[in-house]
């Protein structure tokens, strides 16, 4: 069953560090079977109070693969870099198939 990382980059505190993160994270996501589906594209708010700043969606083959990526040695340094460079809300959502 697929799983999705849904994130919102609320605030970038260090653009240079975020640029480094963006340049390096793709291959690590792909190594764990992840695929970017959206990253900061145009969006419309239809209902509710959520006002995303920079939404990101990544699909993984399973919730286990998403967790394995997030907690992996390969992502550890990049996660720390991102956390120093930005404020981000992240959830994993298990899909229906």
Overall residue-averaged pLDDT value: 97
Summed up, the helix count is 3
- Percent strand equals 25-35%
What spatial order of strands do you see in the largest sheet? Answer: 2-3-1-4
Main sheet characteristics: 4 strands, antiparallel
Q: What is the CATH level 1 assignment?
A: Alpha Beta
Please tell me the total number of domains: 1
Number of strands: 4
Q: Using the alpha-carbon principal axes, give the shape.
A: globular
CATH architecture verdict: 2-Layer Sandwich
Structure description:
The structure is a single chain. The chain is α+β, with helices and mostly antiparallel strands and 97 residues long. The chain has one domain (3-42, 52-94): Alpha-Beta Plaits (2-Layer Sandwich). It is built from three helices and four strands, in the order E-H-E-E-H-H-E. The chain has helices at residues 15-31, 63-70, 73-85, and strands at residues 3-12, 35-39, 55-60, 86-94. The longest helix has 17 residues, at 15-31.
Provide key terms for this protein.
97 residues; alpha+beta; Alpha-Beta Plaits; four-stranded antiparallel beta sheet; 39% helix; globular
Short characterization:
The chain contains 3 helices and 4 strands, in the order E-H-E-E-H-H-E.
Furnish the topology, listing elements before pairings.
Elements: E1 3-12, H1 15-31, E2 35-39, E3 55-60, H2 63-70, H3 73-85, E4 86-94
Helix pairs in contact: 1-3
């Amino acid at each position: 069953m697929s799983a999705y990382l849904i994130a919102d980059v609320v605030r970038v505190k260090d653009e240079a560090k975020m640029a480094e993160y963006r340049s390096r994270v793709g291959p690590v996501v792909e190594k764990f079977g992840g695929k970017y589906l959206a990253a900061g594209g145009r969006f419309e708010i239809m209902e509710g109070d959520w006002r995303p700043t920079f939404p990101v969606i990544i699909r993984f083959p399973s919730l286990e693969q998403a967790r394995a990526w997030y907690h992996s040695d390969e992502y550890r340094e990049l996660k720390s870099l991102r956390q120093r460079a930005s404020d981000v809300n992240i959830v994993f959502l298990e899909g229906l198939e």
